[in-house]
Amino acid sequence: MIDAETIKKPIYQATDKRALSMYDLLEYFSKRGTMRVSDLHLKVGCTPIYRVDGDLQRMKGTPLDTDTIEALARTIVSEKEWPTLLQKGSVDSSFITELMQFRINCFRDNDGFALAIRALENTIPDVSTIGFPNNVWQDIVNKQHGLVLLTGITGAGKSTTIASLIDRIAENRPCRIITLEDPIEYRLKSKTAIISQREVGRDVPSYELGLRDCLREDPDVIFVGEMRDRDSTSWTLTAAETGHLVFSTLHTRDVRGTITRILDMFPTGQQDEIASQLSLGLSHIISQKLIPRADGNGRVVAMELLNNTYAMANLIRLAKTEQVYSLLQTRTKDTPDERMTTLERSLANLVRAGEITPMEAEKWANHPLALLDELQRGERER
Length: 382
Fold this sequence. Notes:
Layout: H1 4-7, E1 12-15, E2 18-20, H2 22-32, E3 37-43, E4 49-52, E5 55-58, H3 66-76, H4 82-88, E6 90-96, E7 100-109, E8 112-121, H5 136-141, E9 146-151, H6 158-172, E10 176-181, E11 194-199, H7 207-214, E12 221-224, H8 230-241, E13 245-250, H9 255-264, H10 271-281, E14 282-292, E15 299-307, H11 310-317, H12 324-330, H13 343-352, H14 358-364, H15 368-381
């Protein structure tokens, strides 16, 4: 356990007249909000650095030294986790205050210890406020089986989107929900559903063993924090194929890259089998990015959406990933049998709504020429 008084002890002498505790450094998140301030980085030789609206901003003050970093780390890494840090050189952890919770990675680099701290709201946002470009979320929360993948770069809001979807399911459906996370981020409450959250490294040794156990624990909905390797991916696909609704994440930048990444995890001789398994088990892929708002007040989500219709499943089964983007471009009606969109169309819609600037849209687009076509199409339809 982490002592509440220890974390409030002033340790970092920011200026001659001002000493800050770890609690003070974390409080900045609640003052500005996690949609604006997402991360805190502490490193020897640098002042504390926050990621604000996607960009790194250095705090004014004295650079952190080795002893200060270690003292700050000890206030937020538990005594049980400290030996792991010393032995393996890094440790994942989490921490909760009255208002917020944090995902922590403490690691050793060339200069000593360093900390990367990600902020999460204690309150899970309602799924209707996340920013889905259509009503696909309604289809997902009503699904009884299939694999739903949330993808994107680190800090794209994948965990928040999944938590909001699972929270809506827990509120409306009498079912059994089991999560496997490393570490647990959002604390989900049993409402109409029963929820068990298991932390890898604390409650279960690995995702693979957790999934093997999970399939014997009568789940209806399973959340696998990340498909990290071949074994965890194989078990996740099996869980989706055997009649469960499964959520998971991957660090890929778009829908097509997600399919390719899954296939590339396996040997060439096994890829046809995995492609077939994925085509049968996949429900949706949601690839998202957080884009700075035009007014400078936080960020807004842009999404690329794949709905595994019969035509899409056929492309996946045959591994014709080069044709996936064309299907995303054409199956865009807001009906259950379509509800797809490209990231470029999502960005163009945000530009037309005045949410983001054309310059930001171009910066974040995967296909700039496709974005230009979407913007021009919008002008023609006016």
